[in-house]
């Protein structure tokens, strides 16, 4: 018999069962007993989290049960654990991480009021969210907001949703992983309640580049008493090493700034095939602004990628990168207006015009944040973004079962999103520069790369860079891997390969 202890909340119970199910897949003959316990953080629902005096208010009581051997392992939301753990127990495993991002719900009935007053009230108990979302929402919403008020909220997820739904606030910020897990749970009555909130709300998911998560958000921690080798071995057998590593990195970084719920700092460590993307954003207790998003590469690059002569790069200036003109396709507005129950991916800001209408049954997504902000200025409600990391980053299955469609140009290729609606044509401009004299290139699209090698085939032997995603897939069909390097954006590429001399 293995005794698993967790908090009494709906989410905590679901997470405990997820751990139990994982153990059963490895050892199906084992007996499990689930124990649920109120913690100090569950009992005190009035004090803001950032002002609670005790470290580990949601976890220390469960830890005590391990020490006293009332339970064999404890299951936590990892972000509830204090950054520095005390001796006697240790975290020995985790499950694959759920969505790291936040989600924000806004009451549909309040949108006109928000537009009129140019202000809104959001419920959250997180200083991190308050700091990072203040600037993001000013650009991400399709109307002007002069003032965003943040009000503290406590309680489990259903309690917070009820306070939002029946209270006077305009919106609420929550961890998307919590919503996903509650919707995936078999408790139909709970799912129906959450669905009612969603149906009466409009929502958006801030990208990690703008709103990195709390360290370990979306991850489950499994805690065991020191010396319990039988339980430690059992948990290690279900441990997801990638998630464990990511969480450790995030917690170590926050620890270097002091740690704690009062911090206005978000940090996300996303493990990708091309490297690990680290995002750090916020402000320290000393009022030092943090704003970093980098790729931590798995393999050290050769000398060909450093100290490049600025005269040998293309484009040397992003303003000169004009390989195409764009011509709108007639009837596109009519076709867009007929779309129903789709996840619509906007690849560029020009795929939609202000006059065009997106039916409310659709979800609008963007390839990157720049496109999001462009569409918001045109008056479109954007639900989220692939954050310039490629089309394979979809994680909407609990919020939407819509089929995806991509708004793009008529010569685009199909990748993970097969259905396309063509909204414009690419018209080739004359390339005035002799690209054969260049050695290093950054491509914003696969179409630009294909046009350039058509005109200057010798550049296939040179060095090429782009963001992750479809452009990379096109380039690697023509260029060997040692001559391709992924960057998050043009500016990072230019600065890194020229050592900042360009």
Please characterize this protein's 3D structure.
The protein is globular. Among the domains are: 102-204, D-Maltodextrin-Binding Protein, domain 2 (3-Layer(aba) Sandwich); 300-323 and 429-497, no CATH class; 334-426. Strand 12 and strand 13 (289-296) form a beta hairpin. The chain is built from 15 helices and 23 strands. It has helices at residues 10-26, 40-43, 60-67, 111-117, 127-140, 157-166, 176-184, 188-199, 229-236, 241-255, 332-337, 369-377, 446-455, 470-475, 490-497; strands spanning 2-7, 32-37, 73-77, 89-93, 102-107, 119-123, 147-151, 171-175, 201-204, 220-225, 264-272, 275-283, 289-296, 313-314, 324-328, 342-346, 363-366, 384-385, 403-409, 420-428, 440-443, 463-466, 484-486. It is of the alpha/beta class. Helix 6 runs parallel beside helix 8. The strands form five sheets. A six-stranded mixed β-sheet has the order 15-20-19-16-17-18.
């Amino acid at each position: 018999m293995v005794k698993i202890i967790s908090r009494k909340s709906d989410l905590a119970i679901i997470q405990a069962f997820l751990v139990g199910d994982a153990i059963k897949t490895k050892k199906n003959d084992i007996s499990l007993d689930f124990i649920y316990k109120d913690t100090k953080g569950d009992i005190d629902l009035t004090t803001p989290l950032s002002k609670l005096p005790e470290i580990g208010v949601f976890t220390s009581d469960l830890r005590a049960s391990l020490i006293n051997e009332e339970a064999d392992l404890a299951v936590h939301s990892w972000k509830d654990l204090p950054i520095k753990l005390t001796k006697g127990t240790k975290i020995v495993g985790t499950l694959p991480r759920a969505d790291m991002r936040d989600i924000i719900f806004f009451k549909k009935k309040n949108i006109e009021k928000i537009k009129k007053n140019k202000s809104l009230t959001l419920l959250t108990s997180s200083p991190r969210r308050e700091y990072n979302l203040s600037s993001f929402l000013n650009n991400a919403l399709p109307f002007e907001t002069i003032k965003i008020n943040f009000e503290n909220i406590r309680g489990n997820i259903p309690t917070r949703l009820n306070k939002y739904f029946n209270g006077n606030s305009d919106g609420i910020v929550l961890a998307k992983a919590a919503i996903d897990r509650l919707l995936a749970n078999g408790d139909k009555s709970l799912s129906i309640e959450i669905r009612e909130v969603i149906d009466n709300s409009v929502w958006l998911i801030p990208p990690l580049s703008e709103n990195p998560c709390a360290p370990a958000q979306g991850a489950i921690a499994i805690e065991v008493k020191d010396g319990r080798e039988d339980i430690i071995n059992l948990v290690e057998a279900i441990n997801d090493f990638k998630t464990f590593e990511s969480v450790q990195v995030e917690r170590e970084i926050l620890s270097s700034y002091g740690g704690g719920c009062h911090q206005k700092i978000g940090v996300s460590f996303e493990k990708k095939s091309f490297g690990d993307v680290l995002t750090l954003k916020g402000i320290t207790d000393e009022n030092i602004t943090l704003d970093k998003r980098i790729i931590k590469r798995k393999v050290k690059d050769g000398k060909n990628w450093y100290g490049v002569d600025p005269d040998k790069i293309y484009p040397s200036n992003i303003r000169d990168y004009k390989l195409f003109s764009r011509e709108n396709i007639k009837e596109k507005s009519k076709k867009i207006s007929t779309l129903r129950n789709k996840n619509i991916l906007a690849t560029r800001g020009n795929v939609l015009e202000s006059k065009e209408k997106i039916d409310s049954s659709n979800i609008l997504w963007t390839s990157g944040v720049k496109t999001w902000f462009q569409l918001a200025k045109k008056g479109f409600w954007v639900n989220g973004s692939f954050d310039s990391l490629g089309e394979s980053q979809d994680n909407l299955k609990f919020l939407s079962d819509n089929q995806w469609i991509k708004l793009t140009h008529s010569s685009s290729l199909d990748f993970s999103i097969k259905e396309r609606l063509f909204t414009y044509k690419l018209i080739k401009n004359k390339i005035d520069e002799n690209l054969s004299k260049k050695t290093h290139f950054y491509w914003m699209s696969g179409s630009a790369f294909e046009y350039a090698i058509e005109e200057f085939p010798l550049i296939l032997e040179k060095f090429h860079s782009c963001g992750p995603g479809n452009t990379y897939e096109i380039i690697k069909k023509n260029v060997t891997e040692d001559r391709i390097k992924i960057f998050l954006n043009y500016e990072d590429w230019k600065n890194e390969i020229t050592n900042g001399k360009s």
